[in-house]
Please model this.
Amino acid sequence: MFLKKRMFTLSVICLPVSSLTAVAAMPERPEIRAAAAYVTDCDTGAALYAKNADAQVSPGGTTMMMTAILGLELGQGKMDRNVTIAPESTQLDSDVAVLGLRADRTATLGNALAGMMTYSGCDAAMDIAATVASSQRDFVDKMNDKALAIGAVHTHFTNPSGLPESGHYSTAADLAKIAAYGMKNSDFRTLVSRSSYEMTYSDGDTETLTSLNELLAGQYGGANGVRTGSTDNGGPCLIASATREGKTLVAAVMNSSDRFGDAAALLDYGFAVLKEKGASGSDFATATAGKSDENPYVLRDA
Model:
């Protein structure tokens, strides 16, 4: 009887030890400054990291990912045509980032998309909308329909540019899903992967545009997209993608004082999770993502 009891005790002791070994092998979650963040595997849609990932935030210029997706899908066969100048794009405040498109200095749809996604351009976003849809309202409706189709169910757009408006919001998780959807399109990948772009206008003028995504300038190995954004309300944001060893990840970083550092750390973490998962044969990615840090960051203008 004594021997049987001792053997049972030893077997119980061994279980926690093996469990601790598995936990120790898991990559350490990075310390980031972002109020909200999310990392996803583009191939599987698996969540590899989450922090306040469903908190409604002001997406700023990251909105233009959806504008680019619809511009490509609805504008097939129109890439060489000059965009329609929307009345709204000529009435923007002087502090808004624009490409400077106007009736006597327009650009093809293809160039407008490339300029918008390389640098910025709230005017370009509105002009793209006017070119591929019957109105700004019609285009925004299509944006919201597309968001739902992608699975970005906590997102609502009111304009194609990302300018702050009541009711215009998204989440870190939703923006990562939208980016992951876009990255499956080769034309989208080309738009968002450039560190610079030689913009050509209809009047013959050219301009070299430099990407605001610093990770594309050789700061992160494998970086290949996606889009920056910033508003007074939402703070600096970045949706970043990278491909290593055939795997593409997207990291969404919202309201961060170090958006590029945070994105790099999150992408490193995501790749480490995938590597460890593959080496061990275990599936702890979702459990790791579920350990979401608390932060009461919410949208204030919605």
Summary: The first strand starts at residue 36 and ends at 41. The chain has a mean pLDDT of 89. The chain is about 40% helix and 15% strand.
